[in-house]
Amino acid sequence: MIRIEKRISNSQNLKSLAKFFSFVIGILISLFFLKFLGIGLIDLIKNIYYDAFGSIYSFTELLIKMVPLLICSIGVSFAFKMKLWNIGSEGQLYIGALASSLIAIYIPLNSHYLMIFLMFLAAFIAGGLWSGLAGFLKVKLNVNEIIVTLLMNYIAILIVDYLVYGPLKDPEGFNFPYSKKFTDIAKLSTFGDTRLHTGIVLAIFLLILYYILMEKSVWGYEVRVIGSNPNAARYAGININKNILIIMILSGGVSALAGFTEVSGVLHRLQHSISPGYGYTAIIIAWLSNQNSIGILFSSLFMALIFLAGDTLQLNYQIPISMVNAFQGILLFTLLTGDFFINHKITMKRRKNA
Amino acid sequence: MLKKILFLMVFLFTFNLLYAKDLNVGFVYVGPVGDGGWTYAHDLGRQEMAKLPFVKKTQYIESVPEGADATRVITNLAQKGYNLIFTTSFGYMDPTIEVAKKFKNVVFMHCSGYKTADNVGNYFGRMYQARYLSGIIAGSMTKSNIIGYVAAHPIPEVIRGINAFTLGVRSVNPKAVVKVVWTNTWFDPATERNAADSLLDVGADLLTMHQDTPATLQAAEKRGKFVIGYNSDMRKYAPNGFLTAPVWNWGVLYKEIATQVSNGTWKPSSIWWGLDKGIIDLAPLSPKIPSEIVKKVELEKRDIISGKNKIFVGPLKDNSGKIVVPARKVMSDQELLSMNFFVEGVQGTIKK
User: Fold this and answer.
1) Chain B, nearest residue to A314 by Cα
2) How would you class B277 by CB atoms within 10 Å of its CB: exposed for 0-12, middle for 13-18, buried for 19 or more?
3) pLDDT tens digit string along A157-216?
4) Looking at chain A from residue 300 to 329, which residues have their Cβ under 8 Å from any Cβ of chain B?
């Protein structure tokens, strides 16, 4: 009989090593397929490296891609630390984008900093309330937060769709589903001639905040205790309900900030399909990194790199997008499988009397 | 004198041949080339253009999201030395304009938008003409007088197509109605198929669609109903029910643009070609269509090409019965490009 058991203890070093090896295995499988397609491996690695780090321009593009992933992953990680499964990062991003856009479009301000601050605040509050609702339902009625946050994604996306197809539509936009372009006052400033915006600073700041709150503060410890053993937490006098609410609001508010940086830093307007699934990728990142702050940073960077490598594969080798998606899938698969074997072991036991 | 002119002409001709600029042409696609529809049609055009002698290389990137990613992909193409770049979805308009500012030596052509710049032109086809013709066929073939229309997004391009189609339907069958279901997606076979099924469930016996994939055709085929495709000749997806499809022949336009850019005569403009240029057409009609209807379609096609039938001519009522275009008034291109109402006979809603 095959049994799956949880590993009781394992060393941190072994964990990192296993993750690294599963990553290498994923790369090797992908490379095997690429070799099969007749692509020189050294050449390929050179090209991917060049397209991501080869010039200041390409590196900034990598960072631009990383910003929403990083912010959403931080948001998701807040909740995951407590084993509260906030799957609604995508919807929270949309709500944040919406709130920021409403400020940018309807509030006439002349001060750039005040405008940006208000947009930031609006996104955080709107996202916090949006996801706080799921927290409230969990606390008051014990409704499963996975279902609520997941379904609220669709609601958020449809609300944004409704508005850009209706009331928020740019009157000069030939009836296309785009809001008016923001004025320069509502745009995040960029570094030099690149598209990299100050949202990266916000993302790093949030990461540091996350590190301090979750990994250094007493409160972070409480949250982790609630996550690993709610009964012990209750016994120790930790107010679980209050913390669920706080964590959900924080988690949603932070995720919503990714919407704020996308509309004010990159798109400069509200539109249909703001995000190609950053909120969902963030769940994977939070998982890969074990919600460790440094891990979140590197996993986000890695995911952004995978996205850009997709461009490289298409542009230089005309590999169909479905193959590109398959490679991304293979990498995730090996990483998650590795993770499974780190935490579980499979034992073969002969049944007695059999 | 004549000799001189002749000499000059020959000289200019050879000069042109010698100095025709070599082109590396890049394409940005919104879906995968295997979608069997919109992107597939563009890719057929690309392949046709690639045969021109001065086109050295063509390259595409597929499934590029219409947002922040588009700017990066277009920039990459320009940086890698592509000197003519086609961006083939509405959402690429602002990214195209933005990138064009940084690459003055590259010519950009954007499909289905309305903005131009020194090195950016836009292009599209008067698909509504072919839609009107397919409407005539639909109106003649329906028995239940309910026709289903699976539509992507309530934007002018799609609304124009639905209206032209309905006008075609009603020109032969004033009792028929066209029911519209919005999917809110260009490319999602599962959603498209659900929408098609829901239309069949409410009694539609003929479907058509404005989507990027043939899912609607498969749904109709399965229930043994007639269907009119879009984008490319889709008969292989519905061998029995397929009647025809308004199709794109992008190759006509891509070859023309490439030639102009190569010999230096290209200027930024808004191109909106119709049936007359062959950029749009109807796929070969199914033998199931009676010959008198085929004849009628041919006559109407001739009238559209000659300019006798402009399709959107008053009096036109919207679907609440209000007159929106007074008698004998022909809608201007500007009005067509920003169309935001359904004509009488369409059952569906547009958010205002």
Assistant:
1) B61
2) middle
3) 999 999 998 899 888 888 788 899 999 999 999 998 889 999 999 999 999 999 999 999
4) 307-308, 311, 314-315, 318, 320-322
Phi, psi of B193 (to 5 degrees): -65, -40
Inter-chain CB proximity A271 and B76 less than 8 Å: no
Give the pair of three-digit tokens for residue A70.
Answer: 């990083």
Q: For residue A27, what pLDDT band results from cuts at 50, 70 and 90?
A: confident
d(CA A58, CA A60): 5
Q: Output the CA–CA distances (angstroms, integers) from residue A159 to A16, A151, A153, A165, B290, in the order listed.
A: 42, 13, 10, 10, 47
CA distance B52 to B41: 18
> What CATH topology corresponds to B16-125+249-273?
Rossmann fold (3.40.50)
How far apart, in whole angstroms, are the C-alpha atoms of residue A26 and residue A343? 19
**A103's tokens:** 């400020």
- The answer to whether residue A190 neighbours chain B at the CB level (below 8 Å) is no
Q: What is the fold of B128-240+281-347?
A: Rossmann fold (3.40.50)
To the nearest whole angstrom, how far is the Cα of B335 from the nearest Cα of chain A?
Answer: 9
**ipTM associated with this complex:** 0.85
Say if B16-125+249-273 and B128-240+281-347 have the same CATH topology: yes
Instruction: Tell how far CA B29 is from the center of its chain.
Output: 14
- φ, ψ of residue B348 in degrees (nearest 5): 175, 175
pTM of the model: 0.88
Mutate to test the interface with B, among A59, A162, A176, A328 (most CBs of B within 10 A): A176
User: What pairs with residue B231 in β-bridges?
Assistant: B247
- pLDDT above 70 (res B65): yes
3-class secondary structure, A78 = helix
Place of tokens 């499934």: B63
The domain ranges of chain B are: 16-125+249-273, 128-240+281-347
Which has more pLDDT, A334 or B121? Answer: B121
Query: What is the DSSP-derived secondary structure letter of residue A179?
Result: B
Residue B39 CA to residue B51 CA, distance in Å, equals: 19
